[in-house]
Structures are given as C-alpha cells and as structure tokens.
C-alpha cells in the first residue's frame, strides 16, 4: 500500500487516488485497477511488479519504503515537480478553498493565535487546514530531499 505517497502527492497538489479507497469492485483486482487508471487518465503507481508489467506505460513501479525516495523517483521521471502546494485535502483529495470565518471558529482544533495564518477548508470532510509549522516542516523535507 502506498498511502503515505498518496498523501504527499496530495500535499504537492496532485490529484491522487488510493486503490484502498476505491468503491467499485475489488480494488485488488489488477484488471479493474488498470482499466480505472486508463479511464481516468491516471498513472498507476504500484509496488506490484506483475501489475506494473501488465499496465505497461500506464504504470510506474515504486521501489523503496521512504516516501521522499519514492517522490524523488517520480521527480526524476519527470512526472511531478518538487513543489509543495497544499491546495488539496490530504484525506479525500478534494481541492481546498479559503475558509470562511465561521468555519475557522467552528473548528475547536484551530490555533487560537490566528494572526498571520491562512486558513483553508475542505467542503467534503468539513476539515480546516492552515499554513503553519506543518507547512515549514514539509517544505524542508521536500526541499532537502528532492
Ligand atoms: Zn477532505
């Protein structure tokens, strides 16, 4: 499973779907996965050598366990840019929009000291995001690792 890679791709602004969240059919069924990726114009990222072989040019075989190594391989293939965009919900893949004040106030987990912070909202998860120290840590990891 490549759940961490999927989350990082979303942090970087890429439209990424995890096979484990697919509702249709059996996500482990290779043929369904390949057809679904083709239909949606997605590149299939997999650790499964046989699946990568069957999917041919539509797939990338992901090696290694470290997410930064995995991302670097995708950068080297020219598939992604080493940039953090944080414009997508890391949980559900929905594009975020700027949060309204009521949404900021409704989130008990929002920082109380809100000056200098920019807030974003996922309308599907009803989850609040903000650019803060998490962004700096992620940016550092991506800048130094990729
Ligand atoms: Zn969401």
Number of strands: 5
Distinct small molecules bound, one entry per kind: zinc ion
Strand order of the largest sheet: 3-4-5
Main sheet record: 3 strands, antiparallel
Query: Helix and strand string, N-terminal first?
Result: HHEHEHEHEEH
Q: Average pLDDT across residues? A: 91
Note the overall shape: globular
Provide a count of the helices. 6
Description:
The chain has 146 residues and is of the alpha+beta class. The protein has a domain at 1-86. It has helices spanning 3-11, 30-40, 49-55, 67-76, 101-106, 133-145, and strands spanning 44-46, 59-61, 97-98, 119-122, 127-130. It has a 3-stranded antiparallel β-sheet with strand order 3-4-5, with no helix packed on it. A two-stranded parallel sheet has the order 1-2. Helix 3 (49-55) links the parallel strand 1 and strand 2 (59-61). Helix 1 crosses helix 4 (67-76). It is globular. The model has no long low-confidence stretch (mean pLDDT 91). The site of zinc ion has 8 residues, from loops.
């Amino acid at each position: 499973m490549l759940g961490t890679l999927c989350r990082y791709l979303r942090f970087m602004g890429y439209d990424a779907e995890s096979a484990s969240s697919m509702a249709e059919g059996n996500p482990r069924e290779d043929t369904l996965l390949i057809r679904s990726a083709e239909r949606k114009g997605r590149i299939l990222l997999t650790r499964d050598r046989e699946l990568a072989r069957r999917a041919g040019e539509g797939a990338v075989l992901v090696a290694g366990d470290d997410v930064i190594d995995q991302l670097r391989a995708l950068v080297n293939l020219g598939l992604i840019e080493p940039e953090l965009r944080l414009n997508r919900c890391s949980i559900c893949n929905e594009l975020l929009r700027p949060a309204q004040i009521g949404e900021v106030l409704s989130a008990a987990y929002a920082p109380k000291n809100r000056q200098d912070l920019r807030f974003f909202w996922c309308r599907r998860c009803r989850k609040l995001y903000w650019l803060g120290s998490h962004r700096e840590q992620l940016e550092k990891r991506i800048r130094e690792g990729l």
